[in-house]
Structures are given as structure tokens and as C-alpha cells.
Amino acid sequence: MQLSDYEPIVGKGSIDDLRSLASKLSGKVIQNINSTFTGGGVAEILSRMIPLLSELGVDARWGVIKGDADFFEATKKLHNALHGSDEKISAQDISAFQETSRRNIKELELYGDIIYIHDPQPVALIERKKELGKKWIWRCHIDVSRPNETAWNFIKPWVMQYDAAVFSAPSFSTPLPMRQFLISPSIDPLSDKNRELGQDIIDSVLSKYGIPNDKPLIVQVSRFDYLKDPVGVIQAFKQVKRSIDCRLVLAGGTATDDPESGKVLAEVQDKAEGNRDIHVLLIPPRSDIEINAMQRAATVVVQKSLKEGFGLTVSEALWKGKPVVASAVGGIPLQVKNKFTGLLSHGIEGTAYAIRQLLGNPEYAKWLGQNGREHVKQNFLITRHVKDYMVLFLTLGRSEEVIYL
Amino acid sequence: MWSDIVIPLAVFAAGLIATMWLRRFGYKALDRWAKRTKWQGDEIFLQATRVPSILWCLILSSALALAVSVVTPHWKHWANKGLWTLLVISLALTAVNLVGKYIPLYGEKLKTTQRAIAMSKNAANAVIYIAAILILLDIWGAPTTAIIFLIILAAVVVLVAFRETLPNFLAGIQLNARGQFKVGDYIKLDTGEEGYIKEMNLTETLIESADGSTIVLPNRKLIQSTVTNYGHLMKKAKEPFRFFNRVHLTELTGLKAKNLKELADVLQNAPDSIIYYHTHHFLEEHHYLTPEPANDFAVWVSDALGDDILGEKLANIDAFEFSTLSALRERIVNVIGEHISSGQEVRKAAEGREFYFMKSASVVMSTPYLARDLREFVEALRKLSLGSLYFHIFESRLRLGRVTNDFSVWMKDSLEEQELAEAIEKVNPYTYTLEGVRSQLITLIEKRIKCS
Fold this sequence. Notes:
The complex is a heterodimer of chains A (405) and B (452). Chain A is an alpha/beta fold and 405 residues long. Chain A has helices at residues 3-10, 12-23, 40-55, 69-82, 91-107, 129-132, 149-159, 199-208, 230-241, 260-272, 288-297, 312-319, 332-335, 348-360, 362-379, 382-395, and strands at 29-34, 59-64, 114-118, 135-139, 164-167, 179-182, 217-221, 247-252, 278-282, 300-303, 324-327, 343-345, 402-404. In chain A, the strands form two sheets. Chain A has a six-stranded parallel sheet with strand order 2-1-3-4-5-6, covered by helices on one side. In chain A, strand 3 (114-118), helix 6 and strand 4 form a beta-alpha-beta unit. Chain B has helices spanning 2-36, 41-50, 52-68, 73-109, 114-139, 145-161, 165-178, 219-224, 260-269, 272-285, 296-303, 308-315, 325-341, 374-383, 386-399, 406-413, 418-426, 434-451, and strands at 186-189, 194-200, 204-208, 214-218, 227-231, 241-257, 355-371. Chain B has 452 residues and is α+β, with helices and mostly antiparallel strands. In chain B, helix 1 (2-36) runs antiparallel to helix 2 (41-50) and helix 10 packs antiparallel against helix 15 (386-399). In chain B, the strands form two sheets. Chain B has a five-stranded antiparallel sheet. Chain B has a two-stranded antiparallel ribbon with strand order 6-7. The interface between A and B is large, with 43 and 38 residues. Strand 6 of chain A pairs antiparallel with strand 6 (241-257) of chain B, so a sheet runs across the interface.
């Protein structure tokens, strides 16, 4: 994708802003470091952001640390623990993390004027700050609002040495000695998951999965995970169904690294058993157009998570102009301003009530959907993400709150 | 025979009397017509043809006399050629005389340079002389085919060489005839170019844009585009207004509150930037909503604490009434404090729904827009990004402590437009969306321009 492709969507002014900011970063090298070039949200974000930054003339590069299976086993546990789970981090894990970090600190070439470290895996590279100087940013993509104390205390000595930290939601931040910034993730309006689709494609996807287009459709797109509460969605749906005839689609995949997901899927299928209006669909990976089509076919999109990182599926639905009912967790309240860009709920009854409100008041649902799309356009598209990155780079080393360029 | 002489002489005399009488009658009628019309060209025409027309009467009378004379056909033939030669030469000289007077007349009207006038005169003279020579050669039986071919070839070469200029030249004549624009008018083309006309000539029009650069518009473009003419030059400001744009990044503080007491405690000691952020960020973030949500404190108290009464009180605090952030902070803290001391039930936000204190880091950049008068200002205002409008209206007033918005300051100090500045100051931007503010300001300024 090229910047000009986004101009009809976000307007010339936004693209001009990006060009102005980029011109002020000329000569600076931004070195992004994470743990993998493929798979995962960070790699996806960087693979989209780096070409756009390069097109703007910003010298942004991307490298990865090296690690063996033990290291990645340890970082996975660390990741889960920082998310708040009771994951036990053994002495072996700590040793594997430290050993690999030492090797990367020694071997990795660090040449950027700004070194942008993503997530906890490469966090220890900061140990070279004393030797190299430069500006260092730690970008935390995970929810560390209620971390496992052992895990947080383990990485905290490194985190505290950074010049700035970046979080995805206000609740993820915690008192730290350096400046902290809020940069929400973003969606790409031109990707297969979000681009406009013709009605024929939508119809063919519905027909492929055997979903008749005869009743209002309630859709939740999420992997089968207890934290996404698919069983709660079914319960809410059953309550709605008492007064309004509708269908429910629960579409998602199972995560290969999550042994529980198969169990969750089985439980969901069990709860849906015998109800012809509930469609539990196991969508294979890389089925972005199919996910897109289901969201576009929806009358109401639900995201009834019990815990959420940012919950970008909400922005995806809002971008499609759909009225959304979502739980007020993680980054969802940033996307759904209650009664303005969607409806927030706090439980099964609240979700059922909100869905009924939307199904019974299509004009209100349409108004919310339109506001939601506009909200995403202003705040959660990739162009805003690129802008935030550049403002962050320009802000580094400046103590003023208003910087004149 | 005496009649061989007398008859031609009589015919000559009669012809001369008749043609002179016709000439006199004709010129009298033309003089009356010239007096009635305002066209300056009629005088030139009459002056340039008055004397040569006597010669044309003589030539015509001579031709009639020659026709009735008994001279041999051979002499008649040569005499006719002589008369035609005289007629062609006198017509060519008269045409040269007319062109020499008409071109400067229209050149001046079009404010064309002297060089362009001289070039046009030379070109017209060349055409007349070439035409006259060709006619004379034809009269005297000289071969002209090769010459005509060469001339056509030269004309084609000239047309190809000036294929771009010629349509502009014709458009220049058309523009002048229409008289829709004049030097000093502010024009705007549908293709985006705009500015004051500083020069118009036969082929192009020069306009000065707001940033002081000169845009050269081929006259053909002016004819083909939809052009809005805003009219006369406006009063110039002592200093131009430079529009800035602002982008921002939200900064997290790590501070949070789960109940009213904690909210008030943090607010008491929080930097102004936190107060500013939570009372303003939604104006830009949700500018598309009508009505916009209230300030963050009011929304949180209503939504997370379920205290609608306090929520209403906080929503009712109008930031427009305060000229400093510390005064605004004091009011917010007082409203919360009064509510706490009234003994209301202490409510606590659910986990994850605490109030997170934030502020913003702004980056201010220059824009290509600059205004030296109200017309340029209002045209820039129409195109300004919302970030830019937000910066000059909200950020400058409270965050940068300039007491009022940047536009009013400039209008007062640099343009001496006291009344307009005050009218803009009175627009409460907190009650409109950003687009609504833009539209209000444009209406006020356009009204002022109409009255000037």
C-alpha cells in the first residue's frame, strides 16, 4: 500500500501532516527491534508501518533478536505473567532469558539514533545505553495493568532505564520515572480484513458457512478463549431471542499455543447444541476476507470479553459502520464511547439489554455505527499510528509540552 | 473630337461631385454615430480615413472617366492598373495607420507591456504589407503562387510555434471584452489557484497568492475555469497572520483515581496540562459528534461512579468562562469538594474503570497558509485543518495563556478590526463542533468584508 492510497479515506490534510512531520525527522535512523519477523501482532504492525515510514522518507529499520526454544519458552511465560496470569517463572527460565539477552546484547548491531524496543523479549538490550547513548523507547504491547509482581519486578530494572515507554491503553500505565505515552494500535482500512467488499462476496461467505440471511445477525469474531466469553455471548443471545427473532454467529479460530482453546470450543458447541440459530464457526487462519464478510453481514457486532488487550476487532467492526456492544475492559472503552460510538456492557444481562436496544431501534443503531466509523477514522487507522510514532520520535529529548518545529 | 475630351472630363467631374457628396453625407452620419457611442475607436477610424477617402473619390471618378474615354484598350489597361495600385497602396497605408492606433488603445486597456504592443503592431503591419504586395503583384501580372505558398508555409510555422500562445491571446481579447476582472480583484479558480490580480496582459494573468508568490495563469485557463471574483483589495495588515498546525500525542502519567476524593486530591496538585487535556481533548477527538460529550471528569463521574448529579454539575462548567487553567482547576476541585462535603454516598469505580490522568505533548508546525488581509484570512480559514483551527482557538487561549484566541489578537493588533475581533471573541467555541466554529467565524468575517 502507498500513502496516496489512504488519501481518499483520511483526507489530504492528514497525509500532509505526515509529510510535514517526516521532514523534521530527516537524517535520523529509527531502529525497531522485536523478537520475530513473522507471526504476532507486533510483526504485523511493523510490516505495515515500516514501508509507510520509508515512503515518507523516515529511515526506519527493523531487526530481531536471536533466541533458542528455551528463551522463547521463558518469554512466553513472562508474557503471560505480565498479563496477570499465575504463570510460574522458574530459575531455569530466568537463566535462559538472561543468557540469550547477554548474547544479543553482545552480538546485535545497534546503530539507530532512536532504538525502539518492542515488548519484553528484547528489553535487556537497554544495557548498552551507557555505552552507546542514543534515545531508547520501550513499546509495551501487552496489558500490564495488573501484572504478576514477580514478572514485573524482573523486567522493571531494565524498563526504568528507557527514555520513554509507550502503552496501548491508559490502564496499562503505572508510575515510572520516564515519560509514558499512549499509542493505540490501529487497523489498516485497505487490508483484506477491513477493505470494502461487494454484497456478492458477503453472500457467498454466508452461504459457504450455511448462514441464512433471513434474520438479524449478531456476530462475535474472536478466538475460542474463556477471556472472550463466548458462552456468555450465547447466554445473552438466548435472552434476546425471547423477544426478538435473530441469529448468532460465533466465528473464530483456536490458538495453537493455547491448550484450552479446544476445550472452550467444545463447551461452546455443547451450549449451542440443538439451537439452529446459533452458528459456531471454526475459521481457518488467514481467512481475513471471510472475517470481513461476517462483520459486514452483522446487524450487531458483540465483543463480550472478560479481559482484553486492546480489542482491535471492535475497531474493525466500527470501521464497517456496525453498531457494537462490547465489555468495558482493556482498550475497548477507548474505542466505544458509551452511547456515542457504541454501547458498553458489564455482564450478560447488560449485553442482552444493549443488543435488544439496537435491534429494536435501527435508526439509533445506524447513528451509533456512523459515529463509530468516524471515531475509528479519526483515531484508530494506521495513518494516525504512523503520525503518533513520528510525534513520539520528535518529542524524545524535549521536556516542553508544546514543541515548535 | 472635342467630345473625346469633354465627355470623360464631365464624367470625372460628375463622379467627383457625386462621390464627394456621398463622402460628406457619410461622414456626417458617422460623426453623429461617433458622438452617440462611447467607443474611442470611432474617432480613430474617422480621423484615419477622412483624408484618404478624398483620394478614393478621385480614384473612383478617374476610373469612371477612363471607362467612357476613347483611349486605346492598351492605355486603358495600364491606366486601370495604375488606379488599382493607387487604391491598394492608400488602403494599405490607411490600414497601417488604423492598426497603429487601435493596438496601443487596447494594449493599454489590457495593461499590456510596451514591448507586447510594439510586437503586435509590427506583426499586424507585416500582414497588411504582405497582403498589399501580393495584391499589387497580382494586379501587375507577376507570378504569386510560389510566394503565397511560402507565406502559407511561414504562417503554418508561426502557428505551430505559437500554438500555445495563440489561444491565450484570443482568450485575453475575450477577457478584455467581457471586463469581468481587473487588476486588484481577488479571484479564486475551481482548480485551487487564488489571489489578487496584479497584472493582466494579452496572454496571461498574474495573481499574487497569500504567501506572496506569483502565480502565472494562462488566459485560456481563466476562460475555461469557474472563477469566483471576490472583488476589491482589502486593507492590509501590519503583520501577516501565519497559520500553524498542531498534532499531538497523549502522554500518560501513571496516576489514577478510583473515587471522588482521589480525583480531587490529584487535581489539586496536577500540572495545568492535565486539567487542559481532560477539559479539551474530546473537542478534537469527537469533533464529528453533535452534541459532543462533556469533559472527561463529568463523563467518568456519571459513567464509572454512577453519580449523575455531580456529573451534570461538572458538565456544566464552561471552560469559556475561565481565562486561566488554574481558575478552571479551582472551580472543578470546588464543585467536587462541595459534593463530597455534602455527605453524599462515597462511590468507588469498579476495577479497570478508574480515572486515568493524562496530558498531551503537542507539536506545532507551520502551514503554507498566510493572510495579509481579511479576504486572504477567510479563504485560508475555509481550507485549514481542524488541528490548526483547534490550535488557534483553544490551545492558544488557555494552554498558551494568550487570554483570547489568536485570530482576535491579530485582527485587533495588526488589522485594527476591533469590532470584528470582539465579535469573534464572543463566539463560545465550546458550544460548537470544530466545523461549527469554522462556519461561525467565516460568517462573521464575510459580513465584515461585505460592509467594507
